[in-house]
Amino acid sequence: AQSVTQLDSHVSVSEGTPVLLRCNYSSSYSPSLFWYVQHPNKGLQLLLKYTSAATLVKGINGFEAEFKKSETSFHLTKPSAHMSDAAEYFCVVSDRRIILTGGGNKLTFGTGTQLKVEL
Amino acid sequence: DGGITQSPKYLFRKEGQNVTLSCEQNLNHDAMYWYRQDPGQGLRLIYYSQIVNDFQKGDIAEGYSVSREKKESFPLTVTSAQKNPTAFYLCASSIPQGEGSGNTIYFGEGSWLTVV
User: Fold this and answer.
1) Which tens digits make up the pLDDT trace of A99-116?
2) A83 in helix, strand or coil?
3) B103 CB near a chain A CB, below 8 Å?
């Protein structure tokens, strides 16, 4: 079974300060991990993904995440927040064994972290 | 531009009615998905289809139905059996499993369904 926990439902930062959104996962096999961003009343946009290559993954808009197997974490960071970063962020895990055994591309979503950026 | 188009953006349903949400993609993806999103919760999988003329139930399929007659289209019908249908519905697609995409799923803009 796979699961994902986003440790903070709300995060508030000041513009220009670092962003840290925390995510822990559980997967019985080698996982793929994703971060998606959702602006109000919009679909989800892929920020970045980890699929067993480099453990430090760089994404769009200056975001990056580091896969730490020993800590089962995949935290999302950005050095300097911008007002346009205010949105909801979802950490997602996909167990590739499920995919390989015909279970389809089954993703498990975290419950989301709402990021607020203040002036 | 390639993408996923959902329509309508906003839909109102009366009690006892069936309604259908449209999802069309021109990404040439074989796999398509429907998710439901409720406030403060993550996305939950309703149905998915890995290939034309085939689909599988997800985690919350009761009260919903789908069809996959064409590669580009994966409509979702919310039936009167779905007792709490008010939610944001997201359609998505991906290339087939096993190919080199890292199984990235791409999402449409979503449809709001409200029961009145």
Assistant:
1) 544 445 578 899 999 999
2) helix
3) yes
